[in-house]
Amino acid sequence: MSLTAPPPSGPGDGPPGSPPGNSGAPPGSGGEGPGGPPEGVPGGAREALHDRIAADALTTRRDYLRIVTTVSGGLALGGIGVAAGILHRHNDVEGVPEPRKIADTLAPGESLAFTYPGDEDRAVAVRLADGTLVGYSAVCTHLACAVLFRADRGQEGELLCPCHEGVFNVRTGEVTAGPPPRPLPRVIVTEDLDGSIWALATTRSGESDKDAWCRQFAEIAPERALEIGCPGAVPPRDRV
């Protein structure tokens, strides 16, 4: 499934769906006075800036709620971009990877080797002929050899582990030949409206994208897990 993230809501280097100018610095840092804009700004301008910041934050929350409440049986189109902003702001939670830009573009039939979520975690992204983006761990589930995309094999290409001729379906990650005992874990990848490619999250072997989001939201934002219909999600007020 190809998912297109919404455009960033303002300038900055944050991932798709992150707040305007989100470079990782908290409000009040980077030249601002405590909890406010830079000193020397006229009073009226300071008040206007405060109002704009508050409005931007409210818009971000409303956009998120609008998206997650339209989910039925899976993530809404564009919801991943907003989810990226949520995960980016909670990347200090153990086990929750930070979204990462991995390419400026990726054309049909092309593949990209990258690392995610850690610098030593090998991964591969492929743009299929029909435009679908897929991403996987590039570590074979047999004996952890490197997995490569071979465009010259099969109808759509194949993911091949040359160590023991393990073969995985490029569209699903399922084992199609050889000794690997499990499918490749997925790396959830998406395309921003500017064409850039982002890695947003990881799944466990055999886990769906939605289940992966639910698992991560359960750790960082349980109320969001409830809103997108995650199985077993418990309202925060009902937690023991």
Describe the structure concisely for a colleague.
The chain has about 240 residues and is an alpha+beta fold. It has four helices and ten strands.
Overview of this structure, please?
The chain has 240 residues and is an alpha+beta fold. It has a domain of 103 residues: 3-layer Sandwich (Rieske Iron-sulfur Protein), CATH 2.102.10.10. 23% of the residues lie in helices and 19% in strands. It has four helices and ten strands, in the order ααββββββββββαα. Strands 5-6-7-8 form a four-stranded antiparallel β-sheet, with no helix packed on it. It has a three-stranded antiparallel β-sheet with strand order 1-10-9. Strands 2-3-4 form a three-stranded antiparallel β-sheet, with no helix packed on it. The chain is globular. The two termini are 37 Å apart. The N terminus is likely disordered. GO terms for molecular function: 2 iron, 2 sulfur cluster binding; metal ion binding; monooxygenase activity; oxidoreductase activity, acting on paired donors, with incorporation or reduction of molecular oxygen. This is Cytochrome bc1 complex Rieske iron-sulfur subunit. InterPro entries: Rieske_2Fe-2S, Rieske_2Fe-2S_sf, Rieske_Fe-S_prot, Rieske_Fe-S_prot_C. Its cofactor is [2Fe-2S] cluster. Keywords: 2Fe-2S, Disulfide bond, Iron, Iron-sulfur, Metal-binding.
